[in-house]
């Protein structure tokens, strides 16, 4: 449990979601001194601390109550929930809001030279991915017996390197797939960044602060529409 009476929000330290997270906090009126490369940034105008971590750590920090809120891609959240459920660990969060950044899709892809393929093609194949749990759930749902090969980076080179027959990776523009001679297939998960809360949070002052910030967040989202 969080041992501070300041609201703790986990965001990605450096990566695709960092700037949007920092901008969002600013837009809802949370002033932060982010110049220093520190793990924790204290708000100068509200009882809020921002923890800057790797995105993969954010769901667990919120589920375990180390942080009260977190901003993370649904892809990372869903994968982490499945992993924790497998280990009989608590995997509950409240999704307070889907945010309007971090859009991407988790999609299947295979070497372009093979041309269009149906789902049957995946039978018995090896699929490289950073999201093995989401992939396994999809394969189960679709009754396909294929294996997931876990890779934390450079997934798109796996077929060429002979490590896998196909991949299941995040796509936004499709340029990476194209550059690696891969053809995009079915989307198995659509993802946005989302704001999550620890469901066990009970501190009335923190809950009141969240209640105060949520309409501002809604206002920022509406202003962009
Ligand atoms: O260091 P840390 O662990 O915090 O960061 P990370 O390297 O794991 O994540 P990062 O910063 O790359 O991405 C953070 C989050 O941004 C992801 O979890 C997604 O929710 C979201 N996001 C949105 C994306 C993309 N778009 C995206 N295009 N994450 C990754 N990509 C990669 C993809 O893996 C592929 O390599 O970009 C490439 C494809 O992009 P296109 O435009 O060529 O299709
Ligand atoms: Zn990561």
UniProtKB/TrEMBL annotation:
Enzymatic reactions = 1-(5-phospho-beta-D-ribosyl)-ATP + diphosphate = 5-phospho-alpha-D-ribose 1-diphosphate + ATP
The protein's Enzyme Commission number: 2.4.2.17
* ATP phosphoribosyltransferase catalytic domain: residues covered: 54-219
| Record pathway | Amino-acid biosynthesis; L-histidine biosynthesis; L-histidine from 5-phospho-alpha-D-ribose 1-diphosphate: step 1/9
Per UniProt, activity regulation is: Feedback inhibited by histidine.
The domain of life is Bacteria
Q: Signal peptide span per the entry?
A: none
Gene Ontology terms describing biological process: L-histidine biosynthetic process
Compartments in which it is found: Cytoplasm
The UniProt entry's GO CC annotations, sorted and at most eight, read: cytoplasm
Keywords, sorted A to Z? Amino-acid biosynthesis, ATP-binding, Cytoplasm, Glycosyltransferase, Histidine biosynthesis, Magnesium, Metal-binding, Nucleotide-binding, Transferase
Cofactor(s) needed, names only, are:
Mg(2+)
The Swiss-Prot or TrEMBL record annotates one GO molecular function as: magnesium ion binding
Where is this protein primarily located? cytoplasm
Keyword Plastid appears in the UniProt entry: no
Its biological purpose is as follows: Catalyzes the condensation of ATP and 5-phosphoribose 1-diphosphate to form N'-(5'-phosphoribosyl)-ATP (PR-ATP). Has a crucial role in the pathway because the rate of histidine biosynthesis seems to be controlled primarily by regulation of HisG enzymatic activity.
Q: Family, per the entry? A: Belongs to the ATP phosphoribosyltransferase family. Long subfamily.
Name the UniProt record assigns to this protein: ATP phosphoribosyltransferase
Full-protein positions shown: 1 to 225 of 299
């Amino acid at each position: 449990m969080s041992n501070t009476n300041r609201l703790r929000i986990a965001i990605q330290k450096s990566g695709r979601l960092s700037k949007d997270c920092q901008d969002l906090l600013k837009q809802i009126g949370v002033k932060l001194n982010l110049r220093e490369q520190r793990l924790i940034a204290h708000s100068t105008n509200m009882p809020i601390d921002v923890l800057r971590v790797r995105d993969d750590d954010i769901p667990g920090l919120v589920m375990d109550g180390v942080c009260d809120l977190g901003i993370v891609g649904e892809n990372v959240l869903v994968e982490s929930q499945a992993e924790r459920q497998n280990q009989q660990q608590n995997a509950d969060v409240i999704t307070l809001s889907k945010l309007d950044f971090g859009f991407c899709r988790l999609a299947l892809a295979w070497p372009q030279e093979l041309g269009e393929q149906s789902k049957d093609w995946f039978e018995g194949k090896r699929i490289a991915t950073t999201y093995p749990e989401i992939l396994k759930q999809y394969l189960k749902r679709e009754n396909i017996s294929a294996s997931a090969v876990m890779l934390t980076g450079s997934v798109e080179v796996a077929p060429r390197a002979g490590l896998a027959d196909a991949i299941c990776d995040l796509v936004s523009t499709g340029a990476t797939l194209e550059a690696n001679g891969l053809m995009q297939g079915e989307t198995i998960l659509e993802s946005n960044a989302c704001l999550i809360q620890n469901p066990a949070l009970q501190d009335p002052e923190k809950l009141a602060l969240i209640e105060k910030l949520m309409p501002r967040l809604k206002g920022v989202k509406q202003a962009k529409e």
